[in-house]
């Protein structure tokens, strides 16, 4: 224990210790959740990153992973600082809380800003990306992401199937007599992209831009909500830490 045990400690100090301990247990679990959201984004939801011109979406996920790891380490440190009643550990704990708070606010703000810019970015870049990089050497990630996008969201082309007429892959003759990729087809078989009739391929209003925008917006809302939500909870942790710090006597060495 620290300089004074619970027998000699004021009731307020004891309450603060247990409040802060409870907070740290919840905080550790929150860190696990934050890290899980970041890893989920990178591992399972990153297929379409190669179709985006900006790296903001990826950056927010990395920030959440780093913040989650630091949160979990900080939670353990907070428990030690609380029950050992060490003011120097409490100072370090408060600094780490502040650092995590800033990281999560940054992730939340980035998600919000990118949320506002997403529509303009997709309209400006997606058609060009599909036209110039699909089935081109060195752009296998774009090809894979495009095929998955069209099959998963039942769409064809950035705005509509006519966009594929400007594709370098189609114009080069490498597509054979296809007019759209086979991934546009409702039932994918080799060479099915030769017919672009509505009975054969997906034709949806707004094309793949609308579907991809909706998908990313929904995920950005999750990232932003997690980042800002956990950051707000941390304010209570910083308040409890300051109160406990002031209630403890200075340590003697």
What would the principal axes of the Cα set say about the shape? Answer: rod-shaped
- Gyration radius, in Å: 26 Å
Overall average pLDDT: 82
Low-confidence stretches: 1-8
- What string, H for helix and E for strand, traces the elements in order? HHHHHH
Q: Alpha-carbon distance between the termini?
A: 14 Å
- Count of alpha/pi helices: 6
The protein's oligomeric status is single chain
Work out the helicity level.
55-70%
For the record, the count of structural domains works out to: 1
Tell me the total number of β-strands.
0
Classify the beta-strand content into a percent band.
Answer: under 5%
Largest beta-sheet characterization: none
Structural class: mainly alpha
Main location: membrane
Keywords: Cell membrane, Glycoprotein, Lipoprotein, Membrane, Palmitate, Transmembrane, Transmembrane helix, Ubl conjugation
Subcellular location: Cell membrane; Membrane
Membrane topology: Multi-pass membrane protein
Describe the structure concisely.
The protein is 66% helix and 0% strand. By secondary structure, the protein is an all-alpha fold.
How does this structure look, described?
There is one protein chain. With 253 residues, the protein is mainly alpha-helical. It has one domain. The protein contains six helices and no strands. The protein has helices at 11-44, 56-84, 87-133, 140-152, 168-171, 207-247. Helix 2 runs parallel beside helix 6 (207-247). It is rod-shaped, with a radius of gyration of 26 Å. The two termini are 14 Å apart. Residues 1-8 have low confidence and may be disordered.
